[in-house]
Amino acid sequence: MTPLQIGLFGVLGLLGVGCYGLLITRNLIKVVIILQVLVKAVVLALVLAGQAGRQPGLGQSLAATVIVADTMVAVVGLALAVQIRRRFGTVDVSAISTLRG
Amino acid sequence: MAQTLIFLTIGLPWLGALAAWLTRNEQERAQHTLAVGFSVAAGFAALALIPFSGSGVVLRLPIGGLFGDMTFVADGLGVFLAAVATVVGSLAVIFSVSYMHGDPQLGRYYSLVLLFIGGMVGLVLTNNMLFLFFFWEITALCSYALISYYNDDPKAVSAGIEALVMTQVGGVGLLGGALVVFALFGSYEIDAFLQNAAKLGPNPLAWMAFGFLIAAAAKSAQFPFQTWLPDAMEAPTPVSALIHAATMVNAGVYLLARFYPAFAPVPGWKTAVIAVGAISALMTACMALVASDLKRALAYSTVSQLGYMVYAVGTGGIFASQFHLFSHAVFKALLFLAAGTVIHAVGTRDMFKMGALGAKMPFVRNVFVIGALSLAGLPILNGFWSKESVLEAGLTGGPVWALAMMLVGAGLTACYTFRMVWLVFYGEARSRLHAHDATASMRVSLSLLAVGTLFSWHLAGPFGRLLETTLPFHKVHALGTAQMMVEVLLAPLTWGALVIIGLGLCAWWWRDRLTFLTDGFGWLGAAASQSFGFEWLNQQVVCATQSVAQALRVTQPGHLSWNVAGIIGGLVAVLIILTWG
């Protein structure tokens, strides 16, 4: 197996874990953590794409950008989780369904 | 120089919009000054651009590969419409100084008005179809926001949404056309498209031609989209003047005129354009005849006159349509602003509550009568020359049935115009209204427009030559002003039309003796006051949409896991299609 293939399996594995986690998790804090796992899959994919496209610098700089943006997502997500806990008294996402049509 | 002027014509209104937005609403005076200053400066920039007009790209801004270059041309058609938009627009802004005096949210008002003017200038000057679409949507957005300006009034809000939805329907056609052109030519340039339109093949070209016709009909409030414009009367009156005379509705006629050389060979397209114009002109003239709201009657007359322009494009009379657009912009702005003065003074829009206002507001009466005579098409005002040019174009290039409809429409126009003048300014006072004459800033706008209505037809010759020399694909044959006068005055059609217009005037004058006629056509009047069922049709469409949306609510359970499952499922479906499709 080439390093690229190993990396691709890693990406798919992280994506699979992330999607499965999103489907079964009810705790909002865990959702934020699972989102981090998903974003890590993307970061890995970016680095790999840079390698495969013979532009490692581009891939790595995009990965660094994603890490920065993703940190903000995590922070905002956790802040929202705190607000939701205060307003609804729970962090169980199945209990929060005000968007129901 | 031309590049700088194009920059200024688009940029000055937008800078003004920004400045008015950033000025605090407490500084009302500063907001008025900024808005008037920037809009008048833009008007002068547009006028200064006229001597520099020519064919070909003037300004090219490379903005990356995806959208093509942002190019601007300064040909006769675009420069002329830019001048109309900025000059009439600036007069509407000057008028607003007293009309909107004391409004708590002037910043929002002025910035939207100026954004609107700038968007319209961009729309007519750009040579890139994608940017044509962007500017098109900017004007749609501004019209929505300005129609719903009094956003605590549910009628205004629903009228704004109606305008937005209807013009969006057309916008989709425009975007589709732009994408077709890009897919087949690899460029969004309008000039290149006009040159090579025949290479597109008959099918895509026909799709584009009818798509653009729908876009233009929606924007110019032509049949079957005519309902949004009268409902848009909830807007402040200077905005109505702006929408009706300077911006917005002209865009549809502009679109048809701009792409006429490409679409004219499409079988059935010209007939469709003529039919849309003729039906709109006649139908809304009937509706204007029974309207009781002053602004609504004027709005119907706008749709009717736009029908004349669309009809002229269909018959190949590009010059006639643009000339009528020019005349209409001047006299309709005059009529709207004068009507705004009346409404401002008496506080009602119902014509049956007015009457005998002429004695109280002599200045407004005088300018309104000038505008009304021009709308009716009486010599020697600008509306006469342009309407006769349109009818002349119809005689040479259009079918007889359409010409007959337009002639009947001209008679009805005279009748409803006269009715309007009579109900508002003459007769006996039907209620005790305290009225005062126009203020200074209103008088400036009104008198400039009245002078324009009296004399603007002198520009027909130079304007025709401008179109002839700068539009390589349209094959416009220009006449000098004197030649045009001779041609119009010697044409038998002119005298026929004048007789019909005279009959229309007499029909109102002798309305008491013609009761058998009003009784006989009572069903028509009843249908016209119900807007021929189109309001009902709109209601049905809205109800159907709402019930479908209601039925689709079950697909929104509001659970995160289900939403994520939906997203992942969609992703998998896309991947499968991409792999095996």
Describe what you observe in this structure.
- The complex is a heterodimer of chains A (101) and B (581).
- Chain A is built from 3 helices and no strands.
- Chain A has 101 residues and is mainly α.
- The radius of gyration of chain A is 17 Å and the shape is elongated.
- Chain B is mostly helical and 581 residues long.
- Chain B has 2 domains: 147-529, no CATH class; 538-580, no CATH class.
- In chain B, a hairpin with an 8-residue loop joins strand 1 and strand 2.
- In chain B, helix 2 packs parallel to helix 4 (106-125).
- The model of chain B has no long low-confidence stretch (mean pLDDT 82).
Which geometry of chain B do the CA atoms define? globular
**SS element count, helices of chain B:** 25
Most extensive interface, chain pair and sizes: A-B, 13 and 13 residues
Q: How many domains, in number, for the residues of chain B?
A: 2
* Structural class by helix and strand composition of chain A: mainly alpha
C-alpha end-to-end distance of chain A: 49 Å
| Unreliably modeled segments of chain A | none
> What is the residue-mean pLDDT of chain A, rounded to a whole number?
89
Question: Low-confidence segments of chain B, ≥5 residues, pLDDT <50?
Answer: none
Primary descriptors:
heterodimer, A: 101 residues, mainly alpha, 3 helices, 0% strand, elongated, B: 581 residues, 25 helices, globular
